[in-house]
Amino acid sequence: MTSISLADRKNIRTQTVVALSSVLLLGVKVLAFVLTASVAILTDALESIVNVVASLISLYSLTVSARPRDHNHPYGHGKIELVSASIEGILILLAGVLIIYESVDRLIHPQDLNALDYGIILIAGAGLANYLLGVLCLRTGKRNGSLALVASGHHLQSDAYSTIGILIGLFLLVITGLAWIDSAVAILFGGIIVFTGIRILRSTVAGIMDEADMSLLKKVIVVLYTNKRENWVDLHNLRIIKYGKILHLDAHLTVPWYLNITEAQEEITAMENIIVKKFGESIELFIHSDGCQDFSCRICRKASCKVRQHPFQQDIPWDLKKCDPKRKTRPNRRTYQYSALSLNLPRVFNSRAGEGILMKFNMPKKVFSKRLLVGMRRKSISGARKN
What we know:
Layout: H1 6-36, H2 39-65, H3 80-108, H4 116-144, H5 147-176, H6 180-208, H7 214-226, E1 234-243, E2 246-255, H8 261-279, E3 283-291, H9 333-349, H10 352-361, H11 365-386
Helix pairs in contact: 1-2, 1-4, 2-3, 2-5, 2-6, 3-5, 3-6, 4-5, 5-6, 9-11
């Protein structure tokens, strides 16, 4: 990668539009507050200050994350988006706390309000502009896998929803003339802003700590199991880490032990092609191949295997347990016993010991075999349920 990709250029261009628009909208809201002296409108103006700062930080992070990989950053610069989103979450949280403080102070020390009609018009226009900018950020961010743009989109839309609530409060204030409505509405939406900041911080901390994305892991497992090839005996130690818009996936794939290096690589390449086809080029794969072991025969569906040591018993669906690095798929132990017994009963009953058993129970061979197998089958099923 020697230059900035088209997707990164679109992300930077979108965030530039957001930053310039935020400065303009801040001016509109400050003008509305100067005209009205409404603490609810002050709420909107304070959040717009956060919008301006956050949009500039986000623009910087998008510019840095778009840089190509280098010797010091072999996985790229995508983590800067998490830092940007964290700062934005902190600023939103602080703005919400400040809004609640100012609103409580205004309840205790009320002030006269002026020119609410002009304030309502200005705030309504700014709210609509914020919502449209939020839609633009969310669409671009989700399409290009940019966490910073998605965070900006959620922030702008939460600002627009706050504006709607503030407008409702201002309309009620105009109709009823009750001054406390102004502060009550500001406190309510200050709480909503605090909650939004906490939610953004929670998601960014999870990204910084490389918390597993279970929904994404489940989708990957479903895709692989649906397209499972006969040489894919088992899959385990599946992990996904996200650096900006790039996903890094690594896993251990169990294949027949007798495949040579070229044949094992063909299976790995086939798996990579399936994942890239489904999730796009923004994913990197590191797949390690393991040779199958003795117990693998019982879950291996390859019918043409010439070195099979045990018969196929059961196909075990792949699930989120595949993410456990210490877990390799084994069928239930009692199922082994049941299958081994069913295969060896004819040989047992043809021996002297077998004839002695039949004489002791005074029971025909066919009836005794059926009862014994039914009993073992019940134990096998109960054991599987416990596991």
